[in-house]
Specification:
The structure is a single chain. A hairpin with a 4-residue loop joins β1 and β2. The chain starts with 11 loop residues before the first helix and ends in a 6-residue tail after the last helix. The chain folds into 2 domains: 12-189, Sandwich (Jelly Rolls); 194-304, Arc Repressor Mutant, subunit A. It is of the alpha+beta class. The strands form 2 sheets. The protein has a 6-stranded antiparallel beta sheet with strand order 1-2-9-4-7-10. Strands 3-8-5-6 form a 4-stranded antiparallel beta sheet, covered by helices on one side. Helices cover 48% and strands 16% of the residues. α7 packs across α8 (218-225), α8 packs across α9 and α10 (244-262) packs across α13. The longest helix is centred in the middle third of the chain and has 25 residues, at 165-189.
Length: 310
């Protein structure tokens, strides 16, 4: 049975092997990173992205949204992406679109973790060193223009096949520093981030994203945060309107759906990977939360998937 593919352009290898009519002009696939500048990806994204389906992303990416206006779910966070937003997705993150708007226009910088560490001289900037998985910044017009200009310079330099790598590496490091400085400023200026409930919720979601495949109980996360289960549940519901257990369930189901759609892993092996005691327990859990069994879900997605023509 043919399963849906991983999200296209999820890694440097995907971009390098992309059809020439997609990557000409505004996309550069370099040796250690890739760039897109003012591309309008609606047609090829819409050809294979299934709304509401989670996809795993490889590598690190910074995205400037010149034109947007849609809702995006990334690692259990919901973002209403508007024109002028700047987004970041970390390695291994899970992304889900409710829809792909026709007007979308973006510029982006994509690179693996190892290359980012290299250009940053082995030191990951601020929150990047703490396993930051995703964020969105609603920058000012001037801040967005500066970020765009920085990408434009890098893009122009890499148009030449013999570009100076050291110069480009320094510019990429400068771009990352600039975006992370905006992130830190944005977090500091956001009054919601200063509330106890919001701070605990963000830490909780970060831990769930990292450990949900091994730890399913609220007690584990309460222990990691050094608070009681009851208090954690209260703060999470206060900040999000959703129970803490539901956030754990959402993360587990997202992991399961990604594996079922984008790999040939057996149901038994997947149950073991997700730390369920046995296959029947996993199947019952999955059906209770999704309405279908893991096998039925995999089959339905394989039949609905629209393959990309290469």
């Amino acid at each position: 049975m043919k399963h849906p593919e991983r999200i296209y352009f999820s890694s440097l290898n995907d971009i390098s092997n992309a059809p020439s009519d997609i990557k000409t002009g505004s996309i550069h696939a370099c040796k250690n990173f890739a760039m897109a500048y003012h591309i309008r990806p609606f047609k090829f994204l819409n050809s294979f992205i299934t709304p509401g389906m989670p996809y795993r992303i490889d590598d690190f990416r910074f995205v400037l949204f010149h034109k947007a206006g849609f809702q995006l779910n990334a690692n259990l966070h919901t973002y209403h992406v508007t024109d002028g937003a700047i987004g970041f997705m970390g390695n291994g993150g899970i992304i889900q679109f409710d829809c792909v708007p026709e007007r979308i226009e973006v510029s982006a910088l994509l690179m693996p973790y190892e290359y980012m560490r290299y250009v940053m001289n082995g030191r990951m900037y601020g929150a990047l060193g703490n396993n930051l998985r995703d964020f969105a910044i609603w920058a000012t017009e001037r801040e967005f223009a500066i970020a765009e200009q920085m990408l434009s310079v890098i893009f122009s330099l890499t148009e030449d096949s013999d570009y100076d790598e050291k110069t480009v590496e320094s510019l990429i490091a400068g771009f990352v520093h600039y975006i992370m400085n905006l992130y830190e400023k944005n977090s500091h200026d956001n009054p919601q981030a200063k509330t106890r409930a919001e701070a605990v919720f963000n830490e909780f979601v970060s831990l769930v994203n990292e450990h949900c495949t091994k730890h399913h109980t609220l007690g584990y996360y309460a222990g990691r945060l050094c608070i009681t289960e009851r208090y954690l549940g209260t703060l999470v519901r206060q900040a999000s309107g959703v129970s803490a257990k539901e956030w754990i369930d959402r993360a587990l189901i997202a992991e399961a759906k990604v594996a079922l759609c984008h790999s040939d892993v057996s149901i038994g092996a997947l149950a073991e990977q997700l730390n369920f005691p046995n296959v029947p327990f996993f199947c019952k859990y999955f059906k209770r939360l999704t309405g279908v069994t893991p096998s039925a879900f995999r089959h339905s997605q394989a039949s609905e998937h629209k393959p990309i023509k290469k």
